[in-house]
Amino acid sequence: MIKKIGVFTSGGDAPGMNAAIRAVVRTAAFYEREVVGIRHGFQGLIDNDIVPLDSKSVRNILARGGTILKSARCMDFHTKEGRAKAYENLKNAEVDALVCIGGNGSFTGLTTFYKEFGIPCVGLPGTIDNDLFGTDFTLGYDTATNTVVDCVDNLRDTASSHNRLFFVEVMGRDSGFIALRTAVATGAMGVILPEENATFDELSNSIERANINKKTSNIVIVSEGNKLGTPYEIAAQVRQKFPEMDIKVTILGHLQRGGKPSCYDRVLASKLGVEAVEALLNGKTDIMVGVVENKTVHTFLGQAIQNSAPINHELMRISKILSI
Description:
This protein is an alpha/beta fold. The chain folds into two domains: about 5-140 and about 260-305, 3-Layer(aba) Sandwich (Rossmann fold), CATH 3.40.50.450; about 140-260, Phosphofructokinase domain (Rossmann fold, 3-Layer(aba) Sandwich), CATH 3.40.50. Helix content is about 45%, strand content about 20%. It has eleven helices and eleven strands. Strands 3-2-1-4-5-10-11 form a seven-stranded mixed β-sheet, sandwiched between helices. Helix 7 (about 200-210) links the parallel strand 7 and strand 8. It is elongated. The model has no long low-confidence stretch (mean pLDDT about 95).
């Protein structure tokens, strides 16, 4: 029987992590189970940085960005000795199960830990990249895209005032979800994704078409990990072909991680937090909880890690149609 659950956040922070922590703690309290928070992710497991949590501990965190439990990368957890130390600390603290809020790398460590030591565990998808297989949306993705939209809307004001072309880099690592969604939402002239084999000729054609249509502001959204290059490299190529153009580069960077979670992310975090605890209490383990077509689903951690979430090709088609 599970009597005490440990919850922690791992990897890059994402808006909605605090809402998920709150949901886990309060659901456990509802079912009369204890909860402890593990600070600094997997590093906290090794360092025995474990603190008790109750309903009062998670007051007023629903609307806060970041994570009250902190997050950190942990190389020691890659070693069997490090994981053995983490297990001993959990055993001494009488922790029976784990809820990990994180992304692909975090779930890799979580499923390895489960296979070695058998502690029941559930992953809760917390990453702005939205790149996890087994869920339509990850925590933080909606908030991050809203942040990007606000920034690009502001950039368009100055782009229109000076007839400028802006290349705007957004996060995503090897995933173009943020880039594609925000390109459609902001009316971008173009979008360059890791999933697409974009060419410089295609980009040049888009720029020439925009010039023919006498557009006064042009925005191209560039995703991290794309095959065409960094926004600075792309901009340099464009300057060579279009020397008359006023071209600027903006890197949004970690602005995308911060801020209060959106209504959608708060509700999603609440649903998944409840589902994570109930799944553990119902004997489920080594799974990620997610939402597909607005229904909560379970995906084995191995599947979530090994498979890639597919890009929305219909949204890509719409983006191309509306960019004229």
